[in-house]
Specification:
This protein is of the alpha/beta class and 307 residues long. The chain is built from 9 helices and 12 strands. It has 2 domains: 105 residues, NAD(P)-binding Rossmann-like Domain (Rossmann fold); 178 residues, Rossmann fold (3-Layer(aba) Sandwich). Helix 1 crosses helix 9 and helix 3 crosses helix 5. The relative contact order is 0.13. The structure holds NADPH dihydro-nicotinamide-adenine-dinucleotide phosphate and oxalic acid.
Length: 307
């Protein structure tokens, strides 16, 4: 078995070493033009040339992230399966990140931090968590893990997905028809949708303004879900009271972008859930072994659906 590796923004050597250790029978090498035909490719943002050259015999493309929007911009070999990382240690990171943003906002920790700078011993009136229902857009692998974590803090949780999903303790909404009801039932909005033609620009004035007044946006999915100017207008009018943004239309976020300096926006550098090499390699190796046994694997992308 041969595996070819191409990882934009990652040093390939540690990945190749880890893949060789996990799959001792495999020949694993970095891809370069003219590389021999491989059975599987392990990639992040590969060049089109790699996919074209490898197309004839390539069985699987393993994308080392959960989101496949970038690779779906390329022309994929028609007979090759695209498999994404499902969880791989990202779900717990996402749960930590979202809970941190939520609790920081709900408990007004920024207020206390500012007061402490001046040595001020001062209280805010306690808020009711019932007044802060959390709406999670995208109830997949990550959204469900986030819902579970948020429930531990006893916030009401709403979930929105494409098809109806029953998740314990979560009020479920599905499809376009229930989007407005979902938004109206939520004050904190967490975006964990894949980026597809249906979800691009979904965080815009007319959707965000349906949230309960003074809401918080946490976008940890993709920058292109958000219409950036609409967010600034809603924050400046007070309709929204804050936003924690981990993903942006342009990454890295340009130094002169207004988000950096907006008093009610927190920026993190696409760091809410990092790809973890050991977990990812173990998952890929497990999937290759399962496929060799003829078993189905999780995370196979429906390219027509876009996720
Ligand atoms: P999944 O594929 O497991 O879940 C996607 C969810 O979105 C599903 O519940 C799906 O509905 C729902 N969905 C898709 N399209 C629509 C639609 N048009 N309307 C309503 N709901 C829709 O993905 P993951 O949970 O693994 O990951 C989600 C995204 O998080 C990734 O695509 C990626 O962009 C982002 N991400 C960001 C990271 C970061 O560091 N910031 C790290 C990792 C991922 P249904 O259940 O009906 O299929
Ligand atoms: C991913 C990401 O999709 O890191 O995995 O954004």
């Amino acid at each position: 078995m041969r595996i070819t590796v191409y990882l934009t923004d990652n040093r390939p050597e540690p990945w190749i070493k880890a893949l060789r250790e996990a799959l001792p029978d495999a020949e694993v090498d970095v891809w370069a033009p003219g590389a021999p035909q491989a059975d599987h490719a392990v990639v992040w943002a590969p060049p089109q040339q790699m996919l074209d050259e490898q197309a004839p015999g390539l069985k699987t493309i393993f994308n080392i992230g959960a989101g496949v929007d970038a690779i779906l911009k390329l022309k994929l070999p028609p007979t090759t399966q695209l498999v994404r990382i499902d969880d791989g240690g990202m779900a717990v990171q996402m749960a930590e990140f979202v809970c941190h943003a939520l609790v920081r906002h709900f408990r007004e920790l920024d207020y206390y931090q500012e007061a402490a700078k001046d040595g001020e011993w001062t209280y805010r009136r306690p808020r009711q968590r019932q007044d802060f229902p959390v709406g999670i857009m995208g109830m997949g692998v990550l959204g469900q893990r986030v819902a579970k974590a948020v429930q531990h803090f006893e916030f009401p949780v709403n979930g929105w997905s494409r098809s109806p999903r029953e998740v314990e303790g979560v009020r479920g909404f599905a499809g376009e028809a229930q989007l407005n009801d979902f938004l109206a039932a939520s004050k904190v909005l967490v975006c964990l949708l894949p980026l597809t033609p249906d979800t691009r620009g979904i965080l815009r004035h007319d959707t965000l303004s349906k949230l309960q007044f003074g809401g918080l946006l946490i976008n940890v999915a993709r920058g292109a879900h958000l219409v950036e100017d609409d967010l600034i207008a809603l924050l400046d009018s007070g309709q929204l009271s804050g936003a924690t943004l981990d993903v942006f239309q342009t990454e890295p976020l340009p130094a002169d972008h207004p988000f950096w300096r907006h008093p009610r926006i927190t920026v993190t550098p696409h760091a809410s859930a990092r790809t973890l090499r050991d977990e990812t390699v173990a998952q890929i190796a497990g999937k290759i072994r399962a496929m060799d046994r003829g078993e189905p694997v999780a995370g196979v992308v429906d390219t027509a659906r876009g996720y």
